[in-house]
Amino acid sequence: MRPRYALGSAALMVGSAVNYFGDRLTGVKMELFHGLSTFSGPWMLDVFIVPFVAGLVVAWIFGQGGKWLCYFPPLIVRCIAYAQISLTHEIPEGSALIPLGWWGFFVILAIESAAFGGILGEVFIKRIYTRSAAAKLASTPVDPKP
Fold first, then answer.
1. Which of 19, 24, 49, 130 is the most core-located residue (most Cβ within 10 A)?
2. Closest among 25, 22, 33 to 106, alpha carbons compared
């Protein structure tokens, strides 16, 4: 296995662990719906801030290209959580399993938050502000008149 694949796998595992333990820390199960009280402050932390931090961590570990890899930890954690609840039927009293369409929308929100974290992780942590000097030199226009 090439080292870049191992680094990517490690970044995915750590990012998924950050997302999973962030979910447990907030105490929110995004897959359950209990009326309007579902959309509380901890729920917003779970949908927006936890994946953002996971995206930062993935970009910090993987380096350049981490902004593409950071999409997967929230998707992995959310899919496993939805499957766990729907297959084991552990729905508490007064709650319902959120419809798949709404769940998909919330997963997209979490993935986009992770993408913001991945982009900022590359920009701030790895100091990738612009293209490389060679790419800049190649893209500069050349004056046709000698």
1. 19
2. 33
If one counts every other C-beta atom within 10 angstroms of the C-beta of residue 42, the result is 11
d(CA 28, CA 48): 13
CA gap 50, 97 in Å, rounded? 21
Global pTM value: 0.80
CA-CA distance, 135 to 80, in Å (whole number)? 41
Task: Identify the CA nearest to 28 among candidates 49, 55, 53.
Answer: 49
In Å, how far from its chain's centre is CA 121? 12
List Cα–Cα distances, 107 to 46, 54, 131, in angstroms. Answer: 11, 14, 31
The three-class DSSP label of residue 66 is helix
pLDDT at 92 (0 to 100): 83
27-80 residue pLDDT tens: 888 888 888 888 889 999 999 999 999 999 999 888 888 888 999 999 999 999
Cα angle: 87, vertex 96, 41; to 5 degrees: 110
User: Using one digit for the tens of pLDDT, what is the confidence trace for 108-137?
Assistant: 999 999 999 999 888 877 555 555 665 555
